[in-house]
Amino acid sequence: MFVAFCVILATLVLQGLSLPALIRRLGVVDDGLASVEERTARLKANEAALAYLAEVDSLFPPEIVKRLRVEYDDRIRQLEVCASGSEDRDNRLITPSYQRLQQAALDVERRTIIQLRDEYVINGTKMWATNGEHSTVVATLVKTDPDARPPHRGMSCILAEKQYPGFTSSRRIEKLGYKGVETTELVFDNNRQPAANLLGEVEGQGFKQMMAAIEVGRVNVAARGVGVAQRAFELSIAYAQVRHAFGVPIAEHEAIQFKLADMATKIQAARLLTNFAARKKDAGERADVECGMAKLFASETCFEVVSEALRVHGGYGFSKEYDVERLYRDAPLLIIGEGTNEIQRLIIARGLLERHRITG
């Protein structure tokens, strides 16, 4: 079911939207990607679409290809296959999994990597890898120089391929929501990867590469938050007009009207903030603060709106017969994913202090 859905996405050219036109043969800017993510999030069967698009479009953002000028060899072949959704030689769908940066610090401490001649030997584990079971290539942040100071300069990104022994997906992780896509643990056991799989050709660039990806990912999460919230609002305002209490539709009660008014207002504010961050990122400007703001506000708005939607639905909101129940389970991930909202507040505050620093 999941693989079939991914093929449909590729057919609709929704897969790989964040890749440059040179590779995708299609020009879509970041605010266009955000719009697609929002609309996808409003679909009734959005679980697989949301998580799948999120991972594909966070793996190879335009920044990595444009800034690092990756040579157009096998890596471009990988990008083209990822974007097209086609199958590889072993007839397995390419569904790349981007290993989240907020997990990287812990994992790097436990992961060891040794370079032998023209290859790397990787050992370690990685939790919370989306599409880890079906993926055949994984952007992996590793420690290539344990003695580097500051430590992040010793991090590198390797496009690890499962065709090389010692790289497996050990188990699926059961989750509260987002059940339309698998989340797994990846295991590297003396896994040997060709030195050519080092992203950018130079060691020590991994942290910068991942940071470029994660900003796009935060806009992605914000857009998904807007979409889920919009869906919850649409379900609520429709239900409020058909559900009767005390002889009238509950939409005529002020208590419900207040909820609907607040929901719609906050959703629109989140949408505008998300689009602003996407356009700033697309213009090539520094957007760490704006992306953090969008992710923080949109995900918190989403969680609040979905909670209010459940209240509007009353007991039925707690039932699997109504779609709001699933939205209520999916919303919390957006608060955690791409850096928790507590981390977003730190990023925003530090960025603002840097921009408005008093001199003299």
Description:
- There is one protein chain.
- The protein is an alpha+beta fold.
- The protein has a domain at 208-355: Butyryl-CoA Dehydrogenase, subunit A, domain 3 (Up-down Bundle), CATH 1.20.140.
- The protein contains twelve helices and nine strands.
- The strands form three sheets. It has a four-stranded antiparallel sheet. The chain has a three-stranded mixed sheet with strand order 1-4-5. A two-stranded antiparallel sheet has the order 8-9.
- β2 and β3 (119-130) form a beta hairpin.
- α8 packs parallel to α10 and α10 packs antiparallel against α11 (324-336).
- The longest helix is centred in the middle third of the chain and has 37 residues, at 206-242.
- The protein is globular, with a radius of gyration of 21 Å.
CATH homologous superfamily placement of the domain at 208-355 = Butyryl-CoA Dehydrogenase, subunit A, domain 3
CATH topology of the domain at 208-355: Butyryl-CoA Dehydrogenase, subunit A, domain 3
**How many strand elements?**
9
CATH architecture call of the domain at 208-355: Up-down Bundle
Biggest sheet descriptor:
4 strands, antiparallel
Secondary structure: elements and pairs:
Blueprint: H1 2-11, H2 21-24, H3 30-41, H4 47-59, H5 62-68, H6 74-84, E1 97-98, H7 101-110, E2 112-116, E3 119-130, E4 137-143, E5 155-161, E6 167-172, E7 183-194, H8 206-242, E8 244-245, E9 248-249, H9 254-282, H10 288-313, H11 324-336, H12 341-355
What is the structure about, briefly put?
By secondary structure, the chain is an alpha+beta fold. 52% of the residues lie in helices and 15% in strands. It contains twelve helices and nine strands.
